[in-house]
Amino acid sequence: MKKNESVNIQDVKFVVCDVETTGLSPVYNRITEISLIKVQNGEIIDKYSSLINPQQHIPGEITRLTGIANEDVINKPSFGVLSQKILSFLDCGENTVVFTGHNVSFDYKFLFHSFEREGIQINLKTLCTCKLARRLLKNLRSKSLLNVASYYKIKMERQHRAFDDSLATYKILNNFLDVLCGESEYDTIDEILAFQNKKIYNEGNKSPVLKNIKMTLKDFPQLPGVYFMKSRNGEILYIGKAKSLRERISSYVGYNSEHSDKIKKLLKYVRTIEFETTNSELSALILESNLIKKHKPRFNSAIKRFRFHPFLKIDVQNSFPKVEKVYEIENDGANYYGPFRSGQTVNKLLTDIKDEFKLRKCEQKIIKPSADNSACMYLEMGKCNAPCNFTQSQKDYAEEVQKVHGFITSSAKHSAQNLYEIRMNEFSENTDYERAAFIRDRLQDLKKVLSYQKVITSAINGKKIIIKCVNDAGKEIFFIQNGKLVKTYQMSPDNGYDQRNILEELTETTEYLFFSLSKFVQHKFNPTEKDEIKVISNWLALNKDRNTFMEISDQHSIEDVMNFLAK
After folding, report:
1. Closest CA to 359 of 396, 308, 411, 330
2. Which of 133, 288, 309, 407 fits as disulfide partner to 241, beta carbons 3.0 to 4.6 Å?
3. Tens digits of per-residue pLDDT, 271-290?
4. Which distant-in-sequence residues (6+ apart) come within 8 Å of 245 by Cβ?
5. By C-alpha distance, which of 354, 360, 240 is closest to 292?
6. pTM of the prediction?
7. Is the CB of residue 29 less than 8 Å from the CB of residue 21?
8. Which residues lie closer than 8 Å to 68 by C-beta, 6 or more apart?
9. 338-384 pLDDT, tens per residue?
């Protein structure tokens, strides 16, 4: 890849760093602890942490701040000893690597001077989450790591310890990238790097965009909703959604030299911005999707919209199904697992499935066993039993499919957890502790991914789910059957709803939809319903608070559901 080529966000490796030091000067003071977390597509792919002997005294005030004392580091390796390992982790020669931190210049300068003392020069692109916070969280009084972490409800076990600080920074980075890529339509790392240095909007120095539309940010509420950008003659140019309409519009109206060319072109024609508030972000997403189909604004087709997440699909209607990655949900009777936060997670799972289970890997959508079919190399490798030439029966193949199902859904002995635990123990017994540690970390990440994914899968594959969104605007309840939105309730203090009456109505609806009907009547989804399935499933993939939704199983009662809704 050429140095001057801008790299797509999905291809970027963010090395999130935090260092603890003996003081504030990168020239005279030294590093006492370092933590590096390598991230791609929102997921941790590698980690490195170590205490470092600074070869100088650690002042008492630094010990009181960090908890790192002289006796903690006296027997630890110096930076010189660790320099090659750290350098290898940084991948300095790669154009896809971006060095990231909260007040990143502090961490980078200490690393730069530490390497320089070893005769090593480094040159990395840098991204500062503190700078991003100043532009994305303008109403947050303090942009300190602790304060920004608290804003996103990120718990920090220990402050001023390298790993804890870098882990919090990684989680903050993910939240910022969701906004910049999902709402601001940024595709490349160069756009993100430019954004961190953009001029911060000042009400006293009105931007050209606000001058054109003759509005102020105070005209927009801090509520979720949908906004309409219109031309001079009233044509709807663009429809978008927002968690906070004021914050979203503010991203357009600043001095926007770092906007993409498509956004700049759009803003030239905008003369009015109208909006419609909703009770939740999910309602805004669904409304946006429906309005775009209705009005077909010309700039919505030109600008990237909602970033859909991948699924794993097993076409169980096929006699010999295979596992594949897809981005579309069809009403075809197949099992869909997901959505997953990133394609990388799916790719890792696919690799593990192909290595561990003997499902076919060939490209044919449907295979018809024939004596004329010659088996491919996967039979010789022991990774497929070649149903194409009658080597494996349909019954035996179906049993292998069930094993894959158990692997993905973390059930039974074939679960991913059991598989990785076996591998980890094997590496440990062979004293390959580095690979064992990697598998351990991979297992922890996979546990989180698959545990979360299991709930979402159930929402897609014909089970029942209720989503509850609560904010200052009130409460909104979504009833989901087979991935389809079948009923919505809006409970706002402003609409004068009667709490008792609405609870009675919710009880009746719950009983009818989820407990009285023996089977939900399925039918072919129309385009609107299919889009709703995608919007809802992707919202679930990004929503980190599992208290907002509930999967209803045969073990649940109406009382269980009502207790959930009443919280």
Report:
1. 396
2. 288
3. 889 999 988 888 888 899 88
4. 220, 221, 222, 223, 224, 225, 227, 275, 277
5. 240
6. 0.59
7. yes
8. 20, 32, 33, 51, 58, 62, 161
9. 777 666 677 777 887 887 788 888 877 778 777 776 777 777 777 78
